[in-house]
Specification:
Blueprint (H helix, E strand, L loop, with lengths): L2 E2 L4 H8 L10 H8 L3 E5 L4 E3 L7 E7 L2 E5 L2 E6 L4 E2 L13 E4 L3 E7 H10 L2 H20 L3
Antiparallel strand pairs: 1-2, 2-9, 3-8, 4-7, 4-9, 5-6, 5-8
Helix pairs in contact: 1-2
Length: 146
């Protein structure tokens, strides 16, 4: 069971500097965002999200490493600055894969509702997340058999 991890707004804003989708945001914007992110600590081997569970928001790797798995197969390794769950902020579909901490990890969770509140005031974050989603879709497309 994850535990809440305590970070001050300034500590969290500094960690958010490393998250790819927030790279174009100013320190002021990151400080604002940090007030809406909940940070959870996961031990090695602990499941962060489970396939089929309700997708409730965006998850940010602030510390540690996680692995995306489906049907027992590793799909990707995620490290500091990477994120997952972005599709759940656009739809209400279930999680499409398991994500497991493979090292002790701190995960920032931004709920769908809080993400949209932030995006309404800072639309640059939408461009960043859509660009990353397009990159991931292209990568997946390249791996499909012809």
């Amino acid at each position: 069971m994850p535990k809440a991890a305590e970070f001050s707004s300034s500590q969290l804003a500094a960690l958010l500097l490393n998250v790819l989708i927030f790279e174009s945001l100013t320190r002021r914007q990151l400080g604002k965002l940090s007030k809406w992110v909940e940070v959870l600590a996961f031990e090695e081997g602990e499941t962060i999200v489970k396939r089929g569970d309700e997708g409730s928001g965006l998850c940010l790797i602030l510390e540690g490493t996680a692995e995306v798995r489906r049907a027992g197969r590793s799909l990707a390794r995620l490290t500091i600055g990477q994120f997952f769950g972005e599709m759940s902020i656009f739809d209400n579909q279930a999680r499409s894969a398991d994500v497991v901490a493979i090292r002790p990890s701190k995960i920032g969770v931004l709920s769908r509702e809080k993400f949209w509140q932030f995006a309404d005031s800072e639309p640059a974050v939408l461009r960043n997340i859509l660009q990353e989603m397009a990159r991931r879709l292209r990568r997946t497309d390249l791996n499909l058999p012809e």
